[in-house]
Amino acid sequence: MQSDSVSTITPAMQATDSSQRIGQPTPTDFWETAYTLGLPAALWRLPNQRHKHLIVSFDETLPRVSADLEELPAGFLISPFDNLNTETETPAQTLFLRADVQAVFSENAPPATSIADTEAGNRFQQTITSRTDNQRTDQEITFVTLPDAGTEQEYVTNVAEAVEAMQRGEFRKVVLARTKQLCFSDAPNAVALFDKLCQKYPTAFVSAVSIPEKGQIWISATPERLVSVDAGGIFRTNALAGTQSAFEADGTPKLPQDAMWSQKEIEEQAIVCRYIIECFKKIRLREYIEEGPQTVIAGNLMHLGTSFTVDTQAVRYPQLGTAMLRLLHPTSAVCGTPRDLAFSFIKQHESYDRVFYSGFLGPVNISTNDAGPASDLFVHIRCMKLEGNLATLYAGAGLTEYSIPEREWQETEMKCQTLLSVIQ
Q1: How far is 43 from 347, CA to CA, in rounded Å?
Q2: What is the DSSP annotation of 194-258?
Q3: Radius of gyration of the chain (CA)
Q4: Which of 44, 77, 251, 288 could pair covalently with 207 via S-S, beta carbons 3.0-4.6 A apart?
């Protein structure tokens, strides 16, 4: 069990927006203005891109919606894990941040901004105009890793029970997760954490979402795409499973082509692929492109990944994004197979609420270029919940009958490092 540790966030970790110019508002200016006014905000950067996007909603209490990608206006979705059925007969649980304020930040140009011409918009404009850059002072922020208090033993025991259940044939895969908590000396700068994650994980979807009604900020760097539909109607989803360190024991990076995968990891990834194909079969979709599996580097980790692509115009299925979202979530990569049995096992054995961890999040119908609006939703993993100066990190491991409980615990420790590495 890990002992208490103290680390420091130095002043250099405070916001250093690359877009900052005299007279030009930065992401921090927009974020802090939203925070001052008690408004929800989302800040994100898509994989392999440099532009950073930010929206602010004027809804102090966010609407709960059905995640219909074809009907929603421009905005940002964030859904809890416990949202199995997104059909209309069940209460909608997905939170929607409408894009009342939009800003795009690039390295070599002033930010492109749009603020709704309303009373709330005028108030936002006045507040951000009067905001000065010296309102937040640089200071050292320390944190303490709170004791696990039996978390490791409980997790190992639960994994052993899951393995025994799978060996009896009760289900084929389940994903068990655990938490790690940090206590900061002061509330950390969410935009600074976001910036560091962008620098360290260029291939991840990096985001920070502020939900004032819950008193929470969620920060993540997830490698797993759930559903994307671009302006040309190209649908994409990924199967990502199997985990190992991206570094050798001496700290040197591994080459993807040299990665060795065990039977357990190969089977774990194959289950996720089969789950996606079964969803295609349910809607009688046969025309798709499957590429993989191949080794994918995601920061400090390696995974096995397979991508699936569909031309929705060619198959005449413009609603494919919404249909697959409802079928896929929660995927076997974060829940298990069969889904309902795995979900029941998770609810019985995890002693905490996952909340938005292993749900999904991302922009919907946001125009990023002249091509038109696109939607990009990702599985919400490698994430952290901030509540004032308390941070909760989440990490899970996919279990099969071949799992070794102690190794699964170590896998969750590696996954926690995705975020820990930018604040230690």
Answers
A1: 31
A2: HHHHHHH-TTSEEEEEEEGGGTEEEEEEE--EEEEE-TT-EEEEEEEEEEEESB-TTSPBPPGGG
A3: 21
A4: 44
Tell me the pLDDT tens digit for each residue of 369-413: 667 899 999 999 999 999 999 999 999 999 999 999 999 999 999
Q: Which one, of 177, 180, 171, lies nearest residue 349 by Cα?
A: 177
Report the alpha-carbon distance of residue 190 to residue 54 in Å, rounded.
Answer: 13
Q: Which residue has the tokens 């060996």?
A: 167
Per-residue pLDDT, 59: 97
Cα–Cα distance between 228 and 365 in angstroms, integer?
10
State the sign of the Cα–Cα–Cα–Cα dihedral 152, 360, 53, 198.
positive
- Model-level pTM? 0.91
- Long-range contacts for 73-76 (Cβ within 8 Å, ≥24 apart)? 73/98, 73/99, 73/365, 74/98, 74/99, 74/102, 74/363, 74/364, 74/365, 74/366, 74/367, 74/373, 75/99, 75/363, 75/364, 75/365, 75/366, 76/42, 76/44, 76/209, 76/361, 76/362, 76/363, 76/364
Distance from C-alpha of 187 to C-alpha of 170, rounded to nearest angstrom: 44
The residue to which tokens 């080459």 are assigned: 255
Amino acid at 313: Q
The token duo for 225 is 């795409």
Query: How many Cα atoms sit within 13 Å of 353 on the Cβ side?
Result: 6
Distance in angstroms (rounded) separating the CA atoms of residues 22 and 133: 10
Q: Which of 246, 234, 201, 236 is nearest to 219 (CA)?
A: 201
3-state secondary structure of 149: coil
21 vs 275, higher pLDDT: 275
d(CA 396, CA 366): 30
**At residue 316, what is the residue type?**
R
Q: What is the DSSP string of 77-109?
A: EEE-S-----STTS---EEEEE-SEEEEEETTE
